[in-house]
Amino acid sequence: MIIKQKLELTWIGKEKRPKLEPRILLEGPEKSYHAKHRVSDNDIFDNRLIFGDNLLALKALEQEFSGQVKCVFIDPPYNTGSAFTHYDDGLEHSIWLGLMRDRLEVIKRLLSEDGSLWITIDDNEAHYLKVLCDEVFGRANFVANVIWEKADSPRNSARQFSNDHDHLFVFSKNPEWVPKKLARTEEANSIYSNPDNDPLGPWLPGDPYANKPYSKGLYSIVGPTGRVFSPPPGRFWRISEEKLRELDAKGRIWWGPTGAARPSIKRYLSEVGDLVPRTLWSKNDVGSNRTSKNEMRALFPGDSSFDTPKPEKLIERVINIATNPGDLVLDSFAGSGTTGAVAHKMSRRWIMVELGEHCHTLIIPRLKKVINGEDQGGISKTVNWQGGGGFRYYRLAPSLIVNDRWGNPVINPEYNAAQLAEALAKLEGFTYAPSETLWWQHGHSSERDFIYVTTQNLSAEQLQALSDEVGAERSLLICCSAFRGVSAAQAADRWANLTLKKIPKMVLDRCEWGHDDYSLNVANLPMAEVEQEDRTTTVDNAEPTKGKKASVADVAQVDLFDQSSGEDE
């Protein structure tokens, strides 16, 4: 009897999931940018650059873009134990796994049925991440572990091994997903030749034998010089004798330069298709870390703020394999903005998310250069990029619920009426779409189900008027500060086409309000006993922790961030 047991990762705090607030996005027209004129009919203007915490941003995108993203490429912090310029890449292992799990679950919902996820990672967390992705996506949806040669020279200063590669995990939304083939390269074509001046062009000799038994595959054949050929012991001819003689009559069998060699079936270059993607990506084909550094220096001379951006050719290959022109590409760890820049040049729609200030100082200037046609580095010449298109800049709205000076939860006073209506529509699962003619239609969930948001205290007379205007064939969810002259139970009996909810009580238990940063969410970790008999540990300017309980977060902050970088040149 075989006992099947489900294996999964466990870590401190795994059972704790954040109750994410699905915030709205606020456009900043002053930071959005578009070309002054169209360059081609394929120009795409409705790309999105989002400034804010990427987990909250993914949640903000979920309602509108669920099932629409064709390709997600992410380059998350590698958790090497080093503090980098734009983020702390040294989270305690358990925290890192939790942060990645929360993001992967939303990403899976955003992916289309024929979509795929691509994640770059190094050996510090690669094998844990693989098992984590197996849990979220299912083992059947694991496609490949691509090895990218990121270094173009060894690091002789390494204590043990020179780290020359990164992993690129590929997962699909469904196991039926098939990657697109890659265009043939000169290197792949170079092995074809034409020693006999065959009019069909260059060819490659194919093995005539097969290991699989074939009923018509055991025979002997006489070559042009009279030499007799038979399959080696345990092997068989790949085709029948009749088929071999037919191909020979057409000049598609090669007997060697003198006619005395074993027969080979010609495979013509003109008849072979594009290339199936391989799992080993050479720096010569897709670039290295040094390639990407040089690309950034060419765009921004003297700026070395990003040590390990990804080369444009690497992203180009991913997008070529995973998408078609017009498809939507998402990168929620935008970094230096390479994914958006490459997707833009390749006529794909894109969404990028970044929290760091370099969103404004690096990504936006880079995208402007792309749109203006001033960026002629990276893949620009390969795709004949001339500029065009544009993007819209958004920032995450502040939390909908805040506490007033007495500690009572209230609607954030920064919200105007339209923003409040949009936020409550999103929380209730409605599409925000204010009607130009019906003042009470702020959104819809179907052709007959609508939502109306107001901060007024509605009377029974007002509710009756609303009910009459909505009519028996439609339904309306009313979100209001209060209603008077009738109880909730009476309202439900009196107006069957209306549903009443009070603001903000209706949403208080829905989310973790006021949480703006999920990049280092250590507050919910349980306490752990830490033995400290031989030393005293001080966290920042706090009191020594000797002889008392310390949180896992305290230990992580002290032990994990004080390490040297493990990144390559």
From TrEMBL:
Organism: Acidihalobacter prosperus
Enzyme class: transferase
Homology family: Belongs to the N(4)/N(6)-methyltransferase family.
Annotated stretches, region: Disordered: 531-551
Single Gene Ontology MF annotation: site-specific DNA-methyltransferase (adenine-specific) activity
Protein name: site-specific DNA-methyltransferase (adenine-specific)
EC number annotated for this UniProt entry: 2.1.1.72
GO biological process: methylation
Catalytic activity, as annotated: a 2'-deoxyadenosine in DNA + S-adenosyl-L-methionine = an N(6)-methyl-2'-deoxyadenosine in DNA + S-adenosyl-L-homocysteine + H(+)
Annotated DNA methylase N-4/N-6 domain residues: 69-362
Assigned keywords, A-Z: Methyltransferase, S-adenosyl-L-methionine, Transferase
Stored PROSITE patterns: N6_MTASE
